[in-house]
Design goal:
Layout: H1 8-30, H2 35-55, E1 69-71, E2 76-86, E3 92-101, E4 108-110, E5 115-123, H3 135-138, E6 141-147, E7 153-160, E8 167-169, E9 176-177, E10 182-186, E11 190-197, E12 201-202, E13 209-210, E14 216-219
Antiparallel strand pairs: 1-14, 2-3, 2-13, 3-11, 4-10, 5-6, 5-9, 6-7, 7-11, 8-10, 12-14
Helix pairs in contact: 1-2
């Protein structure tokens, strides 16, 4: 299993903490012949550490390129499909698709369309639960706009959740990005909004599970 570079530090620190807790348990329990409790505590610590390792797993995905399609930028489940007015940069009515990532999902993020990064901004903010309606405008987040080769603008936001406390984005204004290339990482449960031209054909419904870089969620006109 390949581990994403964003997890190296957390995995190492968690491993040290788990070892120190185990050493403390061993010191306290071995003196009182609490072998059963020691084994139980040891198993819990190992399982917890493996959960942290698995959270930062980096799956191998086939790179798909189709200029007409918009692909899911993350693993998760569709929680919003609606028309909204985008007021941060594009100032127009757009089709919004929101995908919620649970704590068990892969948390790598992929670019939903290929093109040139036209706009990028990081917004500090709150840490409301990711499915809260105001999380799109009040939570810590990044906003990226990619202009496709035929001139269409696609906006997507990485949004921190209640547990997520760090958003990583590799996007830089002016750089060319390949469809379904890795664009960032959100540590622990969170959400991504994708805003598309309003005449875009929707290919998913609320409740649908999606796989990042593999599931088409819309077709550009």
């Amino acid at each position: 299993m390949k581990i994403n570079k964003e997890g190296y530090k957390i995995i190492g620190l968690t491993g040290v903490v788990c070892f120190l807790l185990w050493a403390l348990m061993y010191y306290l329990m071995s003196r009182h012949a609490e072998a059963g409790l020691l084994w139980f505590g040891s198993i819990l610590l190992v399982l917890f550490w493996f959960f942290i390792v698995a959270f930062f797993r980096e799956p191998r995905r086939v790179k798909i390129h189709d200029a007409e399609l918009v692909f899911a930028p993350c693993d998760g489940r569709v929680v919003v499909t609606e028309m909204v007015h985008e007021s941060e940069y594009l100032d127009r009515e757009m089709l919004q698709i929101s995908i919620f990532m649970s704590i068990t999902n892969v948390h790598m993020n992929w670019v939903p369309v290929g093109g040139t990064v036209e706009y990028f901004k990081y917004h500090p903010g709150r840490f409301l639960v990711a499915w809260h309606p105001k999380s799109s405008t009040e939570n810590e987040r990044t906003t990226t706009v990619v202009r496709t080769p035929d001139g269409k603008e696609v906006l997507f936001r990485q949004i921190a959740g209640l547990i997520a406390r760090r958003i990583v984005s590799y996007m830089k204004v002016g750089s060319k990005v390949e469809q379904n290339s890795v664009c960032g990482f959100i540590k622990f449960g969170s959400r991504i909004d994708i805003l598309l031209p309003k005449d875009t054909e929707l290919l998913v419904e609320i409740g649908d599970p999606v796989v990042g870089s593999q599931t088409p969620i819309a077709r550009l006109k």
